[in-house]
Amino acid sequence: MPNFVDEILRRRTFAIISHPDAGKTTLTEKLLLYGGAIHVAGAVKSNKIKKTATSDWMEIEKQRGISVATSVMGFDYEGYHINILDTPGHQDFAEDTFRTLTAVDSVIIVIDSAKGVETQTRRLMEVCRMRKTPVMVFMNKMDREGKDPFDLMDDVEQELGIQVTPVTWAHGQGVKFESVFYVHQPDQLNDKEQADMELIHGVYPAFDREAYLAGDLAPVFYGSAYKTIGVEELLQFFVKNAPSPRPVEAIERKVDPMEEGFTGFCFKIHANMDPNHRSCIAFFKICSGRFERNVYYRHVRKDQLMRFSAPTCFMAQKKETVDEAFAGDIVGLPDTGNFKIGDTLTSGENLHFKGLPSFSPEMFKYIENADPMKQKQLDKGIHQLMDEGVAQLFVSQMNGRKIIGTVGQLQFEVIQYRLEHEYSAKCRWENMPMYKACWIEALDEEELRMFKMRKAQYLATDKEGRDVFMADSQYILSMAQNDYKQIRFHFTSEY
Ligand code: G4P
Fold it and tell me: pTM for the complete prediction?
């Protein structure tokens, strides 16, 4: 066993996910306060991009700046090393959140107890379920008049499709809410609470760590992040039960975090805000072993050896150059365009990590050059922004026109703005009718040939050179699915 096993075992890398306004920022801040990483409340800036900001570019730029500082917040607590990965609140950046979820070992879901499960939480839970990520649930804002705690449990169970069991329960609710207690070690209870406990013990299974780790059971906590009630109970339970770094699937094999050799993958690229220095930070999740400063590693896609003199880790909100980091940690590598999302670095092995699927975008537009003198800049800008994962590029196989697919309107505005400010290029958008883009897989080569001949006008190529069927209506898609039984249509790029 390598001598850094203990370092890896004490790591807890997770993300807090929620619908905007449920209290993610407030909870994060309280966790950092417990870890001694910050000393005053109000120090963590929310990276929320408010809905009204769609045309407020300064706001977006400011938010991008904040979000690099809060991308990863590391701190120590009772011998554990905790890394909280931030996820953007705005739903137009859902794809960023999906990718961040590939880099965590577990998740805490925050729910506003007055509102119950909301749309964005439901979508994010789907990704957790797909990846069997262990989840804990924090029912926040119990200091407000909210839904009945049992109704909230039912809501989570049904809406999120996961079995739940309460670990803590609230003494009172709304203005009377003052503390929480462990359901299996209740202190002084009044009659109503006594009755609640009998019901709980009758209805919910006891917490079973194996079931939690398998993603089948979610322990539930009640509290108020704002009033700092129930947060310590959550944190204590979390560090003891949440998983240390888990094995990660690569195409070639499963990689165990305790392996001697270093491996990691890039899940996020953050561009510098300063247009004069087009450098980025590539965020790598370390999957195994130890990463060291100034040691040569293999950039697998480029088959190149590279070393890094200024890797950074993130402690609270400070970025610090580090000499080493371990499986479970996130390192930020300054980059000038060598990396793209999904890239693997290793001690030498030829390895490709899986599980960074592209999701079928929801909005599509043709991108056109609006300044003929700047074609080169435009092409370069588009490619770099796509490598950063801002949106997805497709090229029509029929006429070669470029199509940008995003998950929200805001991205088109961000792309246009950044092309202009960082690449001096101008673009124009042209609407296109589109229902879904699907990656196609053929079980029969001859059928694929026929399909490509007959459906040429609907075919495009993605950035990796894969065929994508661009259905402009549900009817077109259903027809294709009916007529071509040997072709599978997938809504994510990994199937
Ligand atoms: P988010 O990151 O999930 O979007 O939510 P955030 O923490 O920013 O919280 C959203 C709002 O809910 C904030 O109020 C915050 O103070 C409030 N809040 C968070 N936790 C609790 C809680 O346990 N109880 C109550 N009553 N409120 C809570 P705001 O008015 O938008 O901002 P602020 O002026 O308080 O900063």
Answer: 0.82
